[in-house]
Amino acid sequence: MIHLQGITKSYTTGAQSLQVLKGVDLRVEAGELVAIMGSSGSGKSTLLNILGLLDAYDGGQYQLDGRDMAGLSERRAAEMRREMLGFVFQSFNLINFKSAAENVSLPLYYQQVPRKERTRRAHELLDRVGLLDWADHLPSQLSGGQKQRVAIARALAAKPRVILADEPTGALDSSTSEDVMVLLKELNAEGMTMVVVTHENEIARACGRTIRLRDGLVETGMDVGA
Amino acid sequence: MWERDSWIEVAHNVLAHPLRTALTGVSVALGIFILVVMQGLGFGLQHGVEQQFADDAVNSIWVEGGRTQMAYRGNQSNRPVKLNNGDIPGLATQADTVPAYSRRIRMWGAEVVWENPDGENQSGNFGLRGVDPAHIELERSNLLSGRFINERDVLESRKVAVVGPNIVEELFRSAEPVGAFVRINGVLFQVVGTFEDPGSRWENRVTYVPFSTAQSLFRSDDSFDQIIYSTGAMTTDATVAQSGRMLGWLKDVKAVHPDDSRGVRVDNNNEEYAMYASIFEGIRLFIWGIGLMTLLAGAVGVANILAIGVKERTKEIGVRKALGATNGSIVSLVVMESTVLMLVSGSLGLMLAVGLLTTVAPMANHEYFQNPQVDHRIALFALMVLVLVGLASGLGPALRAVAIRPVEALRDE
């Protein structure tokens, strides 16, 4: 599903150039649940940006579902994000002036799905994450765990092929963290490919495989299908 | 469907931020409101002045005797200078064309008695003028009934009178004045017409009689007080030149020192009108200046609020991007939002200003302030400026916001 080969990325700030990724090789098969770990500065968020087509890479090759992602136009990248990827963030990033259902239906808005169909599907997904009764609540009226479940429902709305989660439990206490991981594992069990960036060993253990980044390179976990 | 949906999205976003919307809306509405009201007031002033000049014909030269202030050619100062019938041919030689004119003899108070055949005599004290037929045009009076003084009246020194509305009201009341007989300072005149002068309150208290009649009855010589020349379609420059020549000629004939400004006076309304017109042009420019500055201040405020708004929304924009929004769709969303906001609040300010001007206008009628009105072109111009500022000020920050990498914008609170 995801195939990275020798991905490099550097940022230039003023006169200094910082090489963040120094040739990352990575393979994630369809239906896998993979954790990416690494200390801060190891390049894991940069890697997630590149995986999520939110940032360009300098060198190497990135294939998503067999398609080469090199030199995508901005418009094309947005299209690929829309069709292929769902995002879950540490701080949920729900739009605070939109209700739970409206948040969930937002990706469908960008897919130009008619309004009625959007609402129907949003309610279906909220039901799936156990929050149907909260559909009309604003994010400020929800608990942290509920917000993250709304965010997961939103990530699922466009029926993506891969879900990219950036520290999905980073802002949650341990029991709600567990609930969220259970939900993610359920989705994985239904066949969804997932990449979870985390710094928590417990979360990583719950995933099928762990990839460790250090100084812009993959440390272990190259053994596919472990 | 898609079109309608994006407008719903815009409306939702605008209404979801009541404070931001209100702040932006108020500054836009206020900018438009102040500009339009100021312009309206400016027009009010302009109309007021034009009304003042509607009193007398603008294209006229007024010649008048006075008292000398300087000794000259063997004459003492403080000598009265009078115009005489004999000056008229000489003055005419100084004119570009053969002009229509009216001499004028003034009496501030004359006793007018209506010899009422059906009851008590009515009397009052009114102004009197001996005039030539052209006077009605030069003073811009309107004939209400009967006729004005004509050539024959002057030639034959007929004892006929044309009376103003105050005289009709106070002496005749509901009786018919035309054909009635009145005694003016003891001399019997027949009323042949009535007039009104919309530009002057004083003139409405006046009785006009033929110039020659007034001169022979009330003057011991062939002198008179004033002569008014029409300048027709002459330019301001030509009028000013002609009044200069007339003044020079008169000063020479009347032995008035060239530097004596009180001996004789030659005024022209053209010059005066041009002066007032330039003063009011200045005032209008000033009002424009204030209006534009207000608009600019409003626009800067709006730009500021929008810029802050977009900065606040960096996260939201990041989320939208991650969910598959293109940069274009985000920029167009922000720009549409600011434009809608500007148009709606701008129109509100415009309606308020128009409402104020139309309700207050009829109440505010002063000599120098009449009929304030809204110039629709100015209102539209102001709206356009605000919309353009809205576009520009929404566009910049929106473009910067979409350039931020979403995962960075979205990380950590």
What can be said about this structure in brief?
With 226 residues, chain A is an alpha/beta fold. Chain A has helices at residues 44-51, 74-84, 100-110, 115-128, 144-157, 174-189, 201-206, and strands spanning 2-13, 16-28, 33-37, 59-64, 67-68, 85-88, 162-166, 193-197, 209-214, 217-218. Chain B is of the alpha+beta class.
Q: Strands of the biggest beta sheet of chain B: in what spatial order?
A: 3-4-9-6-8-7
Based on the coordinates given, report the CATH architecture of chain A.
Answer: 3-Layer(aba) Sandwich
Number of domains of chain B: 2
What is the CA-based Rg of chain B, rounded?
34 Å
How is this structure best described in words?
- The complex is a heterodimer of chains A (226) and B (413).
- Chain A has one domain: Rossmann fold, CATH 3.40.50.
- Chain A is built from seven helices and ten strands.
- Chain A has helices at 44-51, 74-84, 100-110, 115-128, 144-157, 174-189, 201-206, and strands at residues 2-13, 16-28, 33-37, 59-64, 67-68, 85-88, 162-166, 193-197, 209-214, 217-218.
- A six-stranded mixed beta sheet of chain A has the order 6-7-8-3-9-10, with helices on both faces. In chain A, strands 2-1-4-5 form a four-stranded antiparallel beta sheet, with helices on one face.
- The longest helix of chain A is centred in the C-terminal third of the chain and has 16 residues, at 174-189.
- Mean pLDDT of chain A is 88; it is low at 221-226.
- Chain B is α+β, with helices and mostly antiparallel strands.
- Chain B folds into two domains: 2-53 and 275-410, no CATH class; 60-268, no CATH class.
- In chain B, 53% of the residues lie in helices and 17% in strands.
- Chain B has a six-stranded mixed β-barrel with strand order 3-4-9-6-8-7.
- The chains are: A alpha/beta (226), B alpha+beta (413).
- Chains A and B meet through helix 1, helix 2 and helix 3 of A and helix 1, helix 10, helix 11 and helix 13 of B.
